[in-house]
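EI: anyone free to look at a 381-residue chain?
SC: sure, send it
EI:
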Amino acid sequence: MNSQLFPKIKMRTKLLSFFAFICLFLFVNQSLFAQKREFVVVLDAGHGGKDPGKVGHNSAKEKEIALNIVLQVGELLENDKDIKVVYTRKTDVFVDLWERGRIANKADANLFVSIHCNAHNSQAKGAETWVLGTHANRQNFEVAKAENSVILLEDNYKVNYKGFDPHSAESVIGLTLMQEEYLDQSIQLASIIQNGFTDKLNRVNRGVKQAGFVVLHQTYMPSVLIETGFITNSEEGPFLNSSVGQQKFSESIYKGILKYKEQLALNTVSNVNFELKEKSTKSNHEIVSTTKKDDYEAEFKVQIASGSRKLETKSYNFNGLDDVERIEIGSSYKYYLGNTSDYSKIKEILQLAKSKGYTSAFIVAFKNGNKVSIEDVLKKS
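SC: here you go
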């Protein structure tokens, strides 16, 4: 073979190798981008079809107001390329409560947001946001009972809900703790949304509350139920039934979801200022250590679980994790992993917790024994 051909062949081989490397690089990167996890939000418009929900002034129907707000929130969220929106209904149809939960679970959603309107035989007004809870407060039970009674319109509800009776306080309490590991995130989202209603829309703040809602119990992700306002109130009802009012509520809920998503990106749950009448005042100041820390030093921990069960902090109870700390808060317990002032180190511990199956674990911060906002700690440092 002509010796002059060897350099040409060698050069061609290098070019082919380089081309193959570029193709492989582009393929790998394209695969990585394709695998990027979307942030999935399931929007649930309460009631629908044969179930009008509550009826207010000028025959305003809860099912119509809730659907209008949901569709507007969804349209706003869909402008964000990182967010995927799933609807439990987009038209005036009746959807079983268990089916709403199934839709959210099948979508492997990050959030479930159910939107409703309130009603009362008085001139009660204001917004409130609910998370799943088991408090036996009579007023909270009545609210949950009114929403849960929708299941009586469903076919085979006794089979689908395994004997659940929406009129029984015992049944509501029996919903309990399947969603406990998401309770902190649910409260965080509820608090953000509620603050938006209060600060931006000047709504009467009826607070973040807990009750046994079936629709929240069916889901396996942070979930909230929003009571936007009272359609039976002579001022609030017409506002909710107006295009302007629905737009303002939609924008507020949309901004609340985005703010929650931003905080979640930091793997944080900020200090939440909310009041649940059924909870001990001890919950507002979590005592985690008797050791006095420097005024400018914060401790980071990873919260891996919470609930009413008092578990021994043995590794076999926590998928092999050692040195788990249990803190009693009122009538429930929180379980933490790690204790360091090094934020990089706590992020490694967070990844360890997630690798052990605690996918909803998150970082929290404490200062002098009190829970504080991680955003504030990071800004100061």
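EI: Residues 5-34 form the longest helix (30 residues).
SC: 👍
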